[in-house]
Design goal:
Rossmann fold, six-stranded mixed sheet, 15 helices, about 25% strand
Length: about 375
């Protein structure tokens, strides 16, 4: 199943947008324009659809409440609305969710609209008469209820399998020392090793073998990658061997890995693992430009080798990544901030002409995301 279209009303930075997605979509934009907020729509739907520990009320609460979600430019319109179109083989699905505060000082969130259609055939449309008779029913979506989502459970399963990756190496290396509460779904990779441990040994060894071959090309003196569990504590670890004049002196555990090695490792594992939608936020961080430039090709090759249709949405600032000539301009979205909220546009006609002439996305599109007054920073 793939996302083909997303329409938003009053979601965070976005007053009203309607955009299309390809199997690999690159999202560009200046700082604070809304790149992360656009990705969060899909994480929000994943959280709403959880049958345990999830649901609409918690998904909104975890994001600071409706006041933090609703676009500041909405002013008099209290409703937030999300519409997602998906394709699954020959079937076309559409899921719409609208919600707003109960009002009158109450804290509950009410479903203002929820509907699903398949191949243009309506499956349901809320509020129903039962909802009208008992308004408390509108505090829950049908997406999150097993007894009501049977006819469109494929959508609920798809949302539930969405993966987000923005690994923070320090949380993985020093998680035990830092302490504190681990965020649900572990968006920053603190529990990445536990994720590896949950896979079967055969699958884990196969994936790590492939990652090992990649790291040999990307990391100087890298030789071998292994998974192990501490015999005393049972905690999972990764260890790597580097070439050294003493054969047993070149082993390191993950807390000694470079930030770039950890991020590249996590990126490749997520690509190999994902069966649904993978959200990558700035995968270029901590990596050398020569490696960053190959990320689009790595994504394409892994998807081709696995012989399954999966989808990747990437936010990036990187000229090295966007300089890759294999990027399809039809899969590029640009976010531009304005007085009435951010807009999302595709590549313009002039930009497309320049790309057809041989220029890269980095040369033609990325400059449009550059803050106009950036050069004045040095004058402060």
């Amino acid at each position: 199943m793939l996302v083909t279209r997303l329409a938003l009303k009053n979601w965070r930075n976005f007053r009203d947008i309607d955009v299309s997605f390809t199997e690999t979509t690159y999202i560009l934009g200046a700082n604070a324009s809304g790149k992360s907020n656009l990705l969060d729509v899909f994480r929000f739907l994943r959280d709403v659809g959880k049958t345990q520990g999830g649901g609409l009320q918690k998904a909104v609460s975890d994001r600071g409440g409706i006041s933090k979600l609703r676009c500041l430019h909405a002013r008099r319109d209290p409703e937030v609305r999300i519409s997602v179109s998906l394709v699954d083989g020959a079937d076309n699905w559409n899921y719409v969710l609208g919600f707003k505060p109960e009002g009158k000082g109450a804290q509950r969130i009410f479903v203002s609209e929820e509907r699903v259609s398949k191949n243009d055939r309506p499956i349901f449309h809320r509020p129903t008469q039962d909802d009208t008779n008992d308004e408390t029913r509108l505090t829950q979506t049908w997406l999150e209820q097993i007894q009501t989502n049977a006819e469109f459970r494929d959508i609920a399963v798809f949302f539930g399998e969405i993966t987000y990756l923005h690994l923070v190496p320090q949380l993985l290396k020093f998680g035990d020392k830092i302490g504190g509460q681990r965020l649900e779904d572990d968006p920053f990779g603190q529990g990445f090793l536990e994720r590896l441990a949950r896979s079967t040994p055969k699958t884990r060894n196969s994936r790590l073998g492939r990652i090992e071959r990649a790291l040999k090309l990307a990391v100087p003196q890298f030789e071998k990658l292994e998974f192990e569990q501490d015999k005393e504590t049972g905690r999972p670890h990764l260890r790597a061997r580097y070439s050294h004049h003493r054969p047993n002196a070149g082993w390191q555990r993950e807390d000694q890995f470079s930030d770039g090695t950890l991020r590249l490792l996590a990126l490749m594992w997520s690509l190999l693992e994902s069966n649904s939608l993978l959200l990558l936020e700035e995968p270029e961080l901590s990596l050398n430009d020569a490696i960053i430039a190959e990320i689009p090709a790595v994504i394409q090759k892994i998807r081709r080798d696995l012989k399954r249709r999966s989808q990747v949405i990437i936010t990036t600032h990187s000229a090295a990544l966007l300089g890759n000539p294999g990027i399809d301009a039809r899969g590029v979205l640009v976010i531009e901030a304005g007085r009435n909220g951010s807009i999302v546009r595709s590549v313009s006609k002039d930009e497309s002409t320049a790309i057809m002439s041989g220029l890269s996305i980095a040369e033609t599109v990325l400059p449009s995301t550059r803050p106009r007054s950036a050069e004045q920073l040095s004058l402060l």
